[in-house]
Design a protein that fits this description.
With about 300 residues, the protein is α+β, with helices and mostly antiparallel strands. Helix content is about 25%, strand content about 35%. The protein is globular, with a radius of gyration of 20 Å. One of its GO terms (molecular function) is kinase activity.
């Protein structure tokens, strides 16, 4: 019998009942399951390597929390396999693998028997005197501002995650119309680019934030990152693109994209985001690379 560690990020509702349903579905499918609430019990950190795979029941931030434990202990060489049960708001990682929240978790569990392991690159970055990683993307411009804005808003009155994503898109539209463009110097492998941009995103997967598709051609295991640039002159066109998404109208945008394995970025803009976290760095400079096949996912 295969053994799994279930890491659950409890949400509103009957937590104990939902916990029981998750365990029941996993055990019914023939797995031995050990449950941990990732917010209430730190013991899960000791149970990542002694099982066949780890089940992450939560959103993108929950996946990042698991990988952060591996990264901080420098245990990325001890590869674990993760299976995702999407229960967050955006679930960009799950959607990258076509694992949809609308599908019942029982169906996701039953699919594991015929699932395949998918290799996944990680972005690695250095800034100031620190090292970090990203799974979705890191960048400057409108998205750090959006994250900072949304962190200040109480969304408890919104009925569902669709309304939260809609609100995020509306705030993004406002930010695009008003945000300051900054000057950047980008060294991408052996080439140099320079310009004034509203958005500079280094993407590891196709979408980011409120399911906004910035790099539809991004590959998960090719050793490259997609650098998406929106210059100041495209402010109105990008705002129109977001407005059409808000109103569920047909739209497209021709994103300027570079592909590179190693990047160095200099800017006077010190505000960045790493995945879904906003932060300020001391000098605005980043060094970015790729750790090829750093993770495995069961899909």
């Amino acid at each position: 019998m295969k053994r799994v560690t279930l890491l659950h990020n409890p949400q509103a509702g009957d937590e104990d009942h939902f916990k029981a349903d998750l365990i029941k579905a996993i055990e019914k499918a023939g797995y031995q399951c050990t449950y941990f609430s990732i917010k209430k019990d730190e013991q899960w950190k000791e149970h990542l390597y002694d099982v066949d795979f780890v089940v992450v029941a939560g959103g993108d931030g929950t996946v990042r929390r698991v990988v952060k434990e591996l990264f901080q202990k420098d245990n990325l060489d001890k590869k674990i396999t993760m299976a995702l049960l999407p229960m967050g708001t955006a679930n960009n990682l799950s959607k990258t693998f076509s694992i949809h929240k609308e599908t019942s978790f029982e169906d996701h569990v039953n699919a594991w028997k015929n699932g395949k392991q998918r290799r996944f690159d990680m972005g690695i970055l250095k800034y100031d005197d620190s090292s970090n990683f990203f799974l979705e993307g890191v960048g400057y411009g409108v998205f750090p501002t959006l994250i900072q804005t949304m962190d200040k808003i109480d969304v408890s009155h919104l009925e569902n995650t669709d309304e939260q994503l809609q609100l995020a898109l509306e705030k993004l539209y406002e930010i695009i119309r008003t945000t300051e463009a900054h000057h950047y110097i980008i060294h991408a492998d052996d080439k140099m680019y320079e310009g004034k941009y509203l958005l500079l995103e280094i993407m590891n997967i196709p979408s980011i934030g409120p399911n906004l598709m910035l790099a539809p051609s991004a590959q998960l295991d090719d050793g490259y990152l997609d650098v998406v640039l929106i210059p100041e002159r495209e402010r109105e066109a990008f705002a129109l693109h977001i407005r059409r998404i808000i109103h569920q109208e047909k739209t497209s945008f021709d994103f300027q994209t570079l592909r590179a394995a190693n990047l160095e970025i200099q800017s006077t803009n010190r505000n960045i985001h790493i995945d879904d976290k906003y932060m300020t760095i001391s000098n605005g400079s980043l060094a970015i690379g790729v750790r090829e096949h750093g993770l495995n996912f069961l899909i």
